[in-house]
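Practice problem 4.
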């Protein structure tokens, strides 16, 4: 198994993800999973790992939105993860039980 990191910038990775490049998504996950997990723990997600998998799945589906943003790639990516955590927190707060 190699530990070769993708040399592409986060901007380039997001544009590649918008074109359905799963290798670019894997690299972005590698770069942001730790910080994303921190966000999930801060939001007290019951399953932070699953929350991150779901967040990156959403990011894969919505990466084309990055091209319309003026935010730096890092801010946009972490913002999307944060937004997903907030949405999950809100939906679990509404769930009776």
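Answer key:
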């Amino acid at each position: 198994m190699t530990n070769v990191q993708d040399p592409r910038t986060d901007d380039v990775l997001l544009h590649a993800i918008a074109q359905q490049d799963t290798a670019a998504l894997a690299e972005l996950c590698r770069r942001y999973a730790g910080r994303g997990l921190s966000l999930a723990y801060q939001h007290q997600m019951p399953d932070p790992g699953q929350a991150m998998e779901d967040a990156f799945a959403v990011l894969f589906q919505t990466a084309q939105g990055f091209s319309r943003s003026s935010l730096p790639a890092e801010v946009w990516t972490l913002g999307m993860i944060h937004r997903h955590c907030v949405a999950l927190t809100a939906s679990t707060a509404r769930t009776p039980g």
